[in-house]
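ESCALATION

Customer reports they have been waiting on this structure for their group meeting. Please prioritize. Original submission:
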Amino acid sequence: ATIFHLAQAMLIFNITLIVRSYQNKNEIPSFGGIAPMIVMSDSMYPTIETGDMVIIRQMKPEDIRIGDVISFYDPASKNPVVVTHRVIEQLYDESGALMFRTKGDFNEAADVDLVPAKNLIGICGFKIAKLGAFALFMQTTEGLILCVVVPIVLLVGYDIIRARIKNNKKEKSRQELLDELQRLRSEIDSQAADEAAEAKDEEK
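Update from on-call: job pushed to the front of the queue and completed.
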């Protein structure tokens, strides 16, 4: 039952992320404030490497501290490019808005552009080494079939088999009860026949 429930949870998680990624390709799909992201460069090596998956947790900009590894939309890019770097300084612009200076652990220099608080996606909670390749595969047609369709088929098949086993047990118990009743009936009939025969013998 535990494995079954775990498979259900993983399936729901996968479907939710895939559906949300198709609904809005310009936003990072998340589930309950948690967003898995794939690292595509070694700018954070050796802390995070290419192909790793980082789990990002949404957090308010004012709760971010120096030393935290954050994911954010690159302010230097017109497209929604996501960067995961470490915060090395907190600053405020002329209007008092919070901004972050970031740097990749592997890079010698800090990032050129400051990161506005509005660009923050979240803080890096932990990483899963080399899981990124699998996540990329999930976004393909083959991956969709393997990671969504196949689990659904397996879960449905599991339910059908479990229902059949349960029904077979019920039918077996029912048949055993009927056999027992038939045996008792036969014993009663046999006993009644014996008593009738004895009664006839006594009459003679």
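Sent to customer with the following note: The chain has a mean pLDDT of 82.
Escalation resolved.
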